[in-house]
Design goal:
Largest sheet of chain A: 6 strands, mixed
Shape of chain B: globular
Oligomer: heterodimer
Structural class of chain B: mainly beta
Distance between the termini of chain B: 33 Å
Largest interface: A-B, 27 and 32 residues
Distance between the termini of chain A: 41 Å
Amino acid sequence: KQEVTQIPAALSVPEGENLVLNCSFTDSAIYNLQWFRQDPGKGLTSLLLIQSSQREQTSGRLNASLDKSSGRSTLYIAASQPGDSATYLCAVNSGAGSYQLTFGKGTKLSVIP
Amino acid sequence: ETGVTQTPRHLVMGMTNKKSLKCEQHLGHNAMYWYKQSAKKPLELMFVYNFKEQTENNSVPSRFSPECPNSSHLFLHLHTLQPEDSALYLCASSLEGRGGAGELFFGEGSRLTVL
């Protein structure tokens, strides 16, 4: 059974700092991995999707990497801003005909002005 | 409208009530999902529909009854719920991938409180 872990559970950084959020998963046989952002009381916003054959994806100040062999993904946020404050969730789809995503519990990020 | 729309955004119901949650997607996707988000727990998949056929049911109690009349609409019918069913219920949609789920797009969620 796939398990996804995100450490730390919470992170506080000063504005302008570059930061890395971590995601690890137990079964390396994945179809894709997706990073989401969730603001309090809201739904999830898709940030980046990495297919199993890819090593990284970039969107603006965000860069996500994937290392299947070690069961790890990182989300790099450059030049953080207070508007980046949110909970960041990592989710893995194992494929094989299943549409189920296994989610981590998320990392709550606070960017201090 | 664009994206994934959920109604109502908030719902309070008694344990003997019957209510429904509605989800509509305007993205041309073929797969729709119901997820449950409880405090301090990871999101849990409840149901998946692909081309309006249910493809996954994660051992969800029968007091939750999904309905997918077409690829754009998804309902979750609720009856005789328990207080522990109080949670944020999230709808999502995606394009079917060749071997799994494509990129998921979520609605804003329906916050359910069962008294």
